[in-house]
Specification:
Blueprint lengths: L1 H4 L7 H10 L3 H12 L8 H12 L1 H14 L7 H12 L6 H11 L2 H7 L8 H22 L3 H12 L22 H9 L25 H8 L1
Length: 227
């Protein structure tokens, strides 16, 4: 229309091509700049430019590529959320009806999601099916997180499997002063055999009557000795 209304302005094919290229945007504008600067043969006339643009940017061609990609699309190990976003993006470029998209989306789901979905009532719409798959995948993810052992539970399981009792050790009433090292078995036997105090190591008394400060001194004997 511009060419017909302004024949003097667009008197040559080059002017028509240049004008058409200025109307392009986005990736098409980048493509137009490249073919113009490289003096591509498609810039020889407006008709050749239009034919090349249809070949490069024809949505039917893009739709066929999207359809092939969509037919091979699977959820795999990813989430239903990521799978559904990619599915919708490709489906928007295809000419498939909703029934075909519904069937393709369902069979592209991971097996773990499919097993749960087949036990439920399937929604008749694509949007409903996607929402159901999202809920099932979210629930399965929560269950999987609950199965992961924490550091504490893993340590407790290790103790049980190794036969180690997790209960705190029983207090050993061996006579010893705070800060004093625990007697070895040999030392205790030596003191017993020689009649020495197990607490202070001297003769003449036993640990329960030791005046060094044994915590096992019997109160009634202490009172009796002080009378």
């Amino acid at each position: 229309m511009h060419f017909s209304l302004q024949p003097r302005t667009f008197a040559t094919e080059q002017s028509k091509v240049a004008f058409a290229l200025t109307l392009l945007t986005g990736r098409a504008a980048l493509w137009g700049t490249a073919v113009w600067e490289n003096q591509d043969p498609c810039c020889a006339s407006f008709q050749t430019l239009a034919a090349e643009m249809r070949r490069v940017f024809d949505r039917a061609v893009a739709g066929r590529e999207a359809a092939r990609t969509l037919a091979e699309l699977k959820q795999g190990g990813g989430s239903v959320s990521d799978y559904s976003i990619e599915f919708r993006t490709l489906a928007a470029e295809c000419q498939w009806n909703e029934e075909a998209q519904w069937d393709m989306f369902l069979h592209g789901l991971a097996d773990r999601v499919l097993r749960e979905i087949y036990a439920l009532d399937l929604p008749p719409t694509l949007n409903g099916l996607i929402e159901l798959a999202l809920r099932v995948d979210s629930r399965l993810s929560r269950v999987e997180r609950l199965k992961v052992p924490t550091q504490f539970s893993g340590a407790a399981e290790t103790r049980r499997s190794s036969g180690v009792d997790a209960v705190s050790p029983v207090y050993d009433p061996e006579p010893m002063k705070v800060g004093r090292a625990r007697l070895s078995r040999e030392e205790k036997e030596r003191r017993r055999s020689q009649g020495l105090c197990l607490y202070c190591g001297t003769a003449g008394h036993f640990a329960y009557d030791c005046r060094v400060g044994s915590p096992l001194r019997r109160p009634h004997q202490h009172q009796h000795s002080s009378r």
